[in-house]
Design a protein that fits this description.
The structure is a homotetramer. Chain A is mainly α. In chain A, helix 1 runs antiparallel to helix 2. Chain A is built from ten helices and no strands. At the A-B interface, helix 1, helix 6, helix 7, helix 9 and helix 10 of A face helix 1, helix 6, helix 7, helix 8 and helix 9 of B. Chain A binds a DNA duplex (21 and 21 nucleotides) through helix 3.
Chain lengths: ~200, ~200, ~200, ~200
DNA sequence: TATGAATGAGCATTCATTCAT
DNA sequence: GATGAATGAATGCTCATTCAT
């Protein structure tokens, strides 16, 4: 196992353990065991527990976002199709993946790690909202939608996805939410609300 | 200070401390100091840390929900007005109050406390969604709206409020969300999306 | 066991353990066991390991020095008798007592604890040297001795006592120094060197 | 860098680090970095931390002592001059040099390393005291001094030098002792005390 | 009942030592 | 021989819980 691989193993283990117990509740013993390394090895890769947490966020974010960015940038379709694409990306790349655990983790621990929250805001949230805003603006410019609400409050477009993640984290065991259907319903509501008209 | 009052003081202190540090990170020393009682006294009212957390959730939920229930049940207005009322209740009774901290706390700790999550689901979430569903159904019955999406997925009506709470918990310090404007925009989007027409 | 007694027990245990292993080498587990208290109890009395070390120094110093001060201040005899008294105090109150271990400990750890060394200098060393200086000055004034060397370098009077403590700490097991005879020889050498004449 | 040179570098680094932090407090990481070698390399030259400490003592002692031995053996002057020479050697070869740090280190750690203390006693202390004793005996034989105290307790001759080293280690930063003047005063006191007379 | 000192299991972190390269 | 990443036992400190007063 080389250095990069080991680091990856540690981060994967950390995601599991932090997601399961929260930051304060996570034991580095468990992270080490899960990663298959000695406890001391963690400290060869990360200065302390907090740095490990930071590494977690930094590691898991770049790929998804970069892909989403690229996919949407070069997409030629209508606003409706773009929103479908956005939802598809969410469903495939976030929901049910480690990224989902990370979102929950950030919501749970964010208030306790202001700098990390700021980083997350800068690198993830504002970029994601920027993408949404760009989609909405293009739709307006093309006359496909008539409301600028999604430009002013792009969070409204994302909210159901956030709630879906939170919901399944809390209630998924006994009252699971069908995320695909849920987000599809959101799509319909949203497009109609934005004044969408098939052209 | 009599027994009931003391219990109230402990729960109020616990809300502050748990909200600030999460379940694992909260120190009962701090709860005791904040409540103005000795540490041992906590154990006269709650069996252990977890019971205190449970007590917290149970305590803070009944009043808000009962009031919302009542207010909406006897409300004579249109669906649009009802949604305005719902938003007003959220803004006045949840956002910026201890209940808000509780929502964040439940999102953060829920996955670690399945029984508590189930309790929360039963006592809070499903009741709140029931109210939304009833409003939506009444709107449909009256012909004020045409879409049954809010009946099938009442979570869509609530999502922005959840996100607003989460957002301000994480990013409020440097990029605060104007909750009133945000939820008002949501209202417009939602009503139009549901096929609202002024009659 | 009341609070004061417990504190005393902890300090006594700490003296033993620190003297035996040095500051860095001492285990608080051992201090706790030796004191007959739980590990956490140490922290009710001292903020951390260093504070415990400080407490040690502060605790063991006041009594010896105050007694020496008083005994010498009211002593009416000649310079020779005073030096005998000084040596007697050293032999009875320092050599072979916990204070001896403390001297060794201070020599060993002083360079690592500048503030503690400064405290020790201020509260012990300079006061002890002040006593010596006063004795020497009185001898000069009375014409019992003729050299002012002990006024200028009172450390010369104390040096053999320091060396005796160090010697027995290191070599006592296989080449013990007869401290009483050693300091008595020092007395003779010193008095003659200072120009003592029986009057 | 050949083997001998590397060993020397390690010992020099070890002296610095051990002197600065004591045995238990010294980190072999620091020794390795200071010596410019990898941590594992230390173990090619010394079996473990303790062996390194032993090597330290053994390495730094031979030269000084051998030189002192030789210089004094062939010295033709009076007892007074010999003591001056002894003091000059101390001031030039010990005070302010690594050997000084070693003395402090031995005082601090000696009780924890009985075998090392025995070695030190045998190789350094008793040889140094033997030199002093020889000087004193020659002075007596020649009639230059009249007291045999320095033959019986040669430690009395060395004590101020030990105290000077200890003093400057602990208090040097804020109340430095002028070692030259101090030892010179000691010389005067000592010679007079021993019954020295210019012949 | 209320108190808060005492307890001790638990955890983050360090560092002497090993060993594959 | 030399390296330095990996190891894991050891240790300072914390904090939920207990209990004598």
């Amino acid at each position: 196992m080389d250095k990069v691989e080991r680091r990856r193993a540690i981060l994967a283990a950390a995601l599991t353990v932090f997601a399961g117990h929260g930051f304060a509740g996570a034991r580095l013993d468990d992270v080490a065991r899960e990663a298959g390394v000695a406890k001391g090895t963690l400290y060869l890769h990360f200065a302390d527990k907090e740095a490990l947490f930071r590494g977690l966020v930094e590691q898991n974010i770049a790929p998804v976002l970069a892909d989403a960015d690229a996919a949407i940038a070069r997409f030629p379709g209508t606003t409706g199709d773009l929103i479908d694409l956005l939802i598809a990306i969410l469903v495939e790349r976030v929901i049910g993946t480690p990224a989902e655990a990370l979102v929950r983790l950030m919501i749970a621990e964010g208030p306790r790690f202001p700098e990390l929250a700021a980083y997350y805001h800068r690198e993830v949230v504002s970029r994601a909202l920027g993408i949404v805003r760009a989609i909405a603006q293009r739709g307006l410019d093309r006359g496909e939608i008539t409301s600028d609400i999604a430009v002013r409050f792009p969070q409204l477009v994302i909210s159901p996805a956030v709630v879906a993640v939170v919901w399944n984290g809390m209630f998924g065991a006994f009252d699971p939410l069908d995320v695909r259907a849920f987000l599809s319903a959101h799509r319909d509501l949203l497009l109609r609300g934005l004044g969408w008209r098939d052209t």
